[in-house]
Design goal:
2 strands; about 45% helix; 3 helices; elongated; alpha+beta
Length: about 70
């Protein structure tokens, strides 16, 4: 998934000037975060412009962040 985000980010930055991605909570956010850390560590070789990334937290439930049903803490 993170390799797809890398390619999509390159295309989006070239076409639109920035890359926007919404990440849901739970296990996907953890997987994405781990992959993102690897990309950041390899930044000197992958030429990703993280200054043009916009990452949003997404949750389909309309609850406050401290609600038991919120993925924010997950």
């Amino acid at each position: 998934a993170i390799q797809s985000a890398q390619k999509l980010s390159e295309d989006a930055i070239k076409d639109h000037g920035c890359f926007r991605i919404a990440v849901s909570g739970g296990s996907f956010a953890k997987l994405f975060g781990n992959g993102l850390q690897q990309l950041i560590k390899a930044q000197s070789t992958n030429n990703i412009d993280f200054g043009k990334w916009r990452i949003f937290f997404a949750d389909e439930r309309c609850v406050t962040l401290d609600d038991d049903d919120s993925n924010f803490k997950g």
